[in-house]
């Protein structure tokens, strides 16, 4: 049997993290549609028998009925493909969800909050869906496969080996448990990073998010295409998102003014389909106001800028001065050493720069 496995499309996402750039969220929402169409076209052209969607197909909070109709109309274009959807934490099967109140095409199966089995000619397809925005137990530990001579596939949304309290709220499942159950393939969703063929005979797979949602999802994004027989699994990752988010370091040690920095950034060239987050690194020779920079950057590829530079001063030496400047720096360094996280340290380091400039 042949299948396509996708997850975490997040249709109608607000793209809050891309709000720095005007209209980019709207552009990405349109690109989500284009990307999903490419998946359906691939299925049509290659006569794929199964489509597994492992959760977070859409954003329950934001999704429009017209988007649901768009998705379902595409499903109608592949009537011979059996579609299995496992609702996740962003699109749970709740009372007012479109999973519950919309009439989906007849080739679509939507799993609910108990592991259930759908028998086909090729395989037994098992699945589980969130029925709330959180899930701490899906019941997999007490589950047993009925017929191990047949192909057995699990479609589910969750966190493998979740350790933290937050991870355990999103259906934490032990990898060892899944392996012991004996599934021939586990179609996972929730983690937006691709994880397939990272070890020999891998059957438990995250395809990653179909379309990248921001700069915490760098690299290629797309779908898993699989061919499965008993004791034989072939997987291929097929990129479908033409846009790629990338992070680039830019050293400003030899730059001595805001104007020069803006000129240099505006002159940078990047590949056509890339969106860039710039990390300013090195030692800075002037105060940097990120919000001010963003207003003046005309390079359309640069979406975000982060200041990771350090002050071009010997702070330890200054802290030894018997001056107001020295006392100020000494006290601030003490606060930095006690800071609980990197964000707090960054704020304090920026405060030192402003203070030194005022006291010079």
Protein architecture, described:
The chain has 360 residues and is α/β, with parallel strands linked by helices. It folds into two domains: 2-239, Purple Acid Phosphatase, chain A, domain 2 (4-Layer Sandwich), CATH 3.60.21.10; 244-359, no CATH class. It is 29% helix and 24% strand. It has ten helices and 18 strands. It has helices spanning 24-46, 65-76, 98-101, 165-168, 175-181, 258-267, 290-296, 315-319, 324-338, 342-359; strands spanning 2-6, 50-53, 82-85, 108-110, 116-119, 123-127, 151-157, 159-160, 172-173, 185-189, 204-205, 222-229, 232-239, 244-251, 274-281, 283-284, 302-307, 310-311. The strands form five sheets. The chain has a six-stranded mixed sheet with strand order 4-3-2-1-12-13, with no helix packed on it. A five-stranded mixed sheet has the order 5-6-7-10-11. A three-stranded parallel sheet has the order 14-15-17. Strand 8, helix 4 (165-168) and strand 9 (172-173) form a beta-alpha-beta unit. Helix 1 runs parallel beside helix 2 (65-76). The chain is elongated and about 80 Å long. The model has no long low-confidence stretch (mean pLDDT 94).
